[in-house]
Design brief:
Chain lengths: 303, 361
């Protein structure tokens, strides 16, 4: 009997558990379950719910009525341009600031102190930064008073409750994030590559242009996407520091007004879907362009 | 041959020092390298050999002294202005550029016309025997091929001086010997001047015209391979050159060119390489190849065999004396572990040194 059972086991080959393990599924895989439930309940379900809701207009009409209304009303569709006009320049400015600073910080011994100082704005939150900027950059704020004391201007500059107020706030809160990501990519490049380029006669600019930049591009593309998505969903600073009825009427304000002032959740959902699509479009375009660049390990030696 | 290295007469290191905080990584290193020479910087890790190379390349600023290329002072120049070719230990190939672009990098940075770059790169590819690989990325090459690319990239810019930082240490044993011959061939074909850093005395002996032995940031001895191998000037150089048997004893007599030590009661006589005086402690250094199993008598010391290994033509064994000295010896016959033997050698094969000074002076 034993011999028969043994023979059949051999014919069947490895059992189910062994076959699953060979594909990378074992008991440890179960640790994914809480995260899967979490994202199902808090992301997939609300997203699907909103998606369906956006096709059921409150005022009746066919299933695309909300979308048609959005794209026929300049007060609504212009929010896309307003938001892009903030988010893209802010993200580019953050990246352009982060790269040279990361190159300098990479060589520093007291990286931690500087990193802590730079990360502080993240922990403060956008509202606190907005309050601070309102006082600092306002008509009676230190900034304008200092400039006037030195006679550099005669009238206070209008720096809040317009485009530039939101811009400044987004740079302050977005920069630390952009910087930390950039720093990790910059320090990931083998310094021997730069030394090799130097001994081959490349000047500092040539070393950056021909060695660092091509190796950094994929990382900078990811950094751009993550920073862009953050800036694109701007809401508190656009309300507090901008002109929420004019130039900084961003798409999240339009969605919030539809949902919580007109109580039209269906329209709010439709605007949120459009917002998501625009973000997705930019992110996909940027990530696709990574294919143009080298994407292997950034080290000069075989692993 | 259109790769023609820049001509010069000599590179001179004049009392070059390099401090890292309180640590003197290099102290007053002076050395003159003539055109066409192959110089090996040899020493254990931390001796300052890579620091020396990095100072010459300009990757580390010197903290004292000067480096001269003929009449021009170069230690104040940036690395990109010196134009020395360097081969790195981990090759440091640009991972995003293919073999052709890697090799042509230096010429491109100099703004040379494309036709000239192509011609010189082709020639460099020929020289390192990598034809047909030029469109691969470094990640697709084997270690030995990567090494060849690194060498081609360094020499194609026609540097007056080629610097190599342990270029073979990442290769396996067989490839290491092959590439060793390749490096010497390329050096000869180009008439290059090469400074080669290594911790492997075999590599230094087989490649170099002159070897510079460094220890604790100080030059201990400079000489031709044969000179260093046969007559090391100091105990630590001897240790590095394969004198694995170190017999501590007391100097009992000096008779002409022979110095006689008392080692655990045995009288060992050899040639003194450092000044020793009667009554002081001395060390007798003997190469394991020169220590053989023999009869009791002068220059023989009693020992007990620990291990014996068959090495093809002969046996290599280890043994210890009653006083705790360890020996490595060779033998034409197998001896049993645990057996009592006498190990002996000729007078002229024994070098006598004074007690070494410990640590950095």
């Amino acid at each position: 009997m034993d011999a028969v059972a043994h023979a059949s086991a051999v014919e069947q080959g490895p059992n189910l558990r062994q076959r699953l393990a060979a594909r990378g599924f074992d008991a440890v895989t179960l640790l994914v379950v809480p995260a899967a439930i979490f994202s199902l309940l808090l992301f997939v379900y609300p997203f699907a719910f909103g998606f369906v809701l956006s096709f059921e207009p409150k005022a009746g009409g066919d299933w695309l009525a909300n979308y048609r209304r959005f794209f026929s009303d300049p007060f609504l569709y212009e929010t896309i341009a307003n938001t892009l006009w903030l988010a893209i320049p802010v993200t580019l400015v953050n990246l352009l600031l982060a790269v040279p600073i990361a190159f300098r910080v990479r060589l520093m011994r007291n990286q931690r102190l500087l990193t802590t100082i730079l990360v502080l704005p993240i922990t403060l939150g956008t509202v606190l930064v907005a309050e601070g900027l309102l006082n600092y950059l306002g008509p009676q704020g230190w900034f304008n008073r200092t400039l006037m004391t030195f006679g550099l201007i005669s009238q206070p500059l209008k720096l809040v409750h317009n485009y530039w107020g939101v811009f400044a706030s987004l740079v302050i809160t977005g920069f630390p994030f952009t910087f930390l990501l950039t720093l990790s990519y910059v320090t990931g490049i083998d310094p021997a590559l730069e030394q090799a380029a130097a001994t081959l006669g490349a000047s500092a600019w040539q070393r950056f242009r021909h060695v660092y930049l091509p190796l950094l591009m994929p990382g900078l593309a990811i950094t751009f996407c993550l920073s862009f998505v953050q800036a694109f969903s701007v809401f508190p600073s656009a309300v507090l520091l901008g002109e929420p009825a004019g130039s900084t009427r961003v798409i999240s304000i339009a969605a919030a007004q539809a949902a919580f002032e007109e109580y039209d959740y269906s329209m709010g959902s439709a605007i949120a879907m459009i917002m998501g699509l625009v973000q997705l479009g930019i992110v996909v375009a940027v990530l696709a362009s990574r294919g143009l660049f080298y994407r292997g390990p950034a080290s000069g030696a075989k692993g | 041959m259109t790769i023609a290295l820049s001509q010069f007469d000599e590179v001179r290191l004049d009392r070059v020092s390099r401090d890292f905080g309180a640590l003197n990584a290099l102290r007053d290193v002076s050395l003159t390298i003539r055109r066409g020479e192959f110089i090996a910087l040899l020493g254990p890790s931390g001796c300052g050999k890579s620091t020396t190379l990095n100072c010459i390349a300009g990757l580390l600023p010197v903290t004292g002294g000067a480096i001269w290329l003929d009449k021009n002072r170069v230690d104040t120049l940036r690395p990109e202005e010196r134009g020395f070719g360097m081969v790195f230990q981990n090759y440091a190939l640009f991972p995003h550029l293919n073999v052709r672009q890697n090799i042509g990098f230096g010429l491109k940075m100099r703004g040379r016309p494309k036709a000239e770059i192509d011609r010189k790169v082709d020639e460099a590819l020929n020289l390192v025997r990598l034809q047909g690989q030029e469109n691969k990325l470094p990640g697709q090459l084997s270690g030995g091929q990567q090494q060849r690319v690194a060498i081609a990239r360094a020499i194609v810019i026609e540097p007056p001086l080629v610097l190599m930082d342990e270029p073979l240490s990442n290769l396996d044993a067989k490839l290491r010997i092959e590439m060793r011959a390749e490096i010497r061939r390329i050096h000869n074909e180009l008439g290059a001047t090469t400074i080669y850093v290594t911790h492997d005395q075999d590599e230094a002996l087989s490649l170099a015209d002159r070897i510079v032995v460094l220890r604790d940031g100080v030059v201990r001895q400079v000489g031709a391979p044969k000179e260093l191998y046969e007559t090391p000037a100091h105990f630590d150089v001897a240790d590095f050159m394969g004198f694995r048997n170190k017999l501590k004893g007391k100097v009992v007599a000096i008779e002409g060119d022979r110095t006689i030590l008392d080692v655990e009661g045995a009288r060992i006589s050899g040639v003194a390489r450092e000044r020793v005086s009667v009554g002081s402690t001395g060390y007798a250094a003997i190469r394991s190849d020169d220590l053989e199993v023999g009869e009791a008598g002068p220059n023989a010391i009693a020992a007990t065999v620990d291990t014996i290994e068959y090495r093809g033509r002969e046996f290599v064994g280890t043994a210890h004396s009653a006083g705790g000295l360890d020996f490595v010896f060779r033998s034409h016959v197998s001896v049993e572990p645990g057996s009592r033997i006498h190990l002996r050698t000729e007078d002229k094969r024994i070098l006598v040194f004074a007690e070494p000074v410990q640590g950095r002076q």
